[in-house]
Amino acid sequence: MPASATAAKESGQADKGPFAAFLAAGIALTGIVLLFAMVIAFALPAFRQQGPGAVLAWSWRPYQGDFGILPMLAGSMLLALSALALAWPLAVLLLCGMLPRGPAAAGRKGAGLRLRRLGADLLPWAIRLMTAVPTVVYGFAALFLLTPLVRRGLGGSGLCLLSAALVLALLILPGMVLVMEAGLAPRLQRLCPGGLALGFSRLELLWHVVFPSARKTLLASALLGFGRAMGDTLLPLMLAGNAPQVPGGLTEGLRTLTAHMALVTANEVGGAAYDSLFAAGALLLGVNTLASVAARRLARCSEPGAPPELRS
Amino acid sequence: MKSFFPVLVLALFCASAALAAPSGALAPFAGLEGNLDIAGGTAHIPVMNGAARNIMEANPDIRITVAGGGSGVGVQKVGEGLVHIGNTGRALKDSEIARYGLVSFPFAIDGVAVVVHPQNPVGALGKEQLKKIFAGEISNWKEVGGLDAAISLYIREDGSGTRETFESRALDAGQSAAKSNVVSSNGAMKTAVAQDPNAIGYVGIGHLDDSTKGVILDGMVPSQQNAADGSYTVTRLLYMNTKGQARGLTGAFIDYIYSADGKAIIAKAGYIPMDRP
User: Fold this and answer.
1) What is the ipTM of this complex?
2) pTM surpassing 0.80?
3) Is A301 exposed, middle or buried (0-12, 13-18, 19+ CB in 10 A)?
């Protein structure tokens, strides 16, 4: 992408230390390649000995010789997508509240403005604080506060898709907001003096100019959030009920690939159940890699420094 | 969850106990020194910790670490020589004995009790009812004399010693419904059942307390005493396992577990001590 590279130089982000970057990238890449090789090498026996049909099946009953992990794959996808559907719109709304103030705003007065200023000052701080909350804190708080509410309100045991998705949404929210902010704030700032002079409000600029030109940043943040939600182990383990089934509703339990691996490794040291875990790991790695690669490509294509008209 | 939070207890009581010469059951440790690493079944941890504390107090040259991880981890770690003693809540499989050359030492009886929420009016169940409940055929408490509410099933993860004991002894090798919630420790089971008024699950008898209610099964009252005299039959043995015959510090530790002091620790942890077979 020559256009965005030129743009990056124009906005003063000259490359520094390309060697260090190559070295770091090389180490990371080697690690990733080794990881893939290992997981796939361990997953192969499960596919070879029992045939791919035995592992890619819909029934997990290890004592009867059924080692299907598809319910867990479906559970992971369903939970991650649910959490994303909750968190992404919320992230966009939060972003609107915390983007930098335009210079024109300084001249205005009123309660609405004060509220907006409070939002712009407080929200970034709160969002950054949220990134520091350990997963297990969310998990325990939800176990004692959220699950009884869900149980009383909707029936079932409270350990279900809904509980896990709600808390997982909270977990992936700050990361998504920060990615969006990094991508969109510079655009808005560049547009602000001229746009405000033309009579647009900041929100109008954001909605009509910045968002349409930054679809890729928005999508990249969604993919990153999805990857984080797919990969989290503790929240689904504590809140989703871990039943190896495809949930038929919001109040039914499910088991994610990650929770499945945590549960099975606790007691198995070999045999078909253990081998099938590597197949589960390979699936998880595959899905997350796709999401991550897609997110990175998109983020690079829509460099924050590039003015909209320069992008190809 | 266990394997993510191995309970690594490294007690360092290198206090003045060294001055007092150890006596009684602790005498064999007098000349010994070095490390002893223990891992495996979570049910064993209170016993292992109690013994480790006494031994390390008597002889500061000995360091004993106790980790959890579950029965599978216990077999794997002792088999591969990563720890000296691997604990299991089940008898070793033939394949495990053949693969690693392990020797087993059963030292305690642990009963598994069916538990419900303390406010659940159902206090007794027949085995057939229990089987149908866990198979998902009975799905409402009113079918067994309780309130009109859907039953929430809680079971342990695949490979759990507690689950194996429960399914083989209480369900007669019956299966648990796929929709059951799965929790991964006795503590998590107690938390879950204590919170959910419609829950049914099972815990080791040593974990029974006021937070949950033990259900009378076919007229058998779940208690340590009944498990010891054989009148409560949903029981299992707890094992220590070593790679080859136990010698040196490992051997002395196992002797200590079978001693009168060891039996007191086992009883205090809520299990019934056994004599060396």
Assistant:
1) 0.75
2) no
3) middle
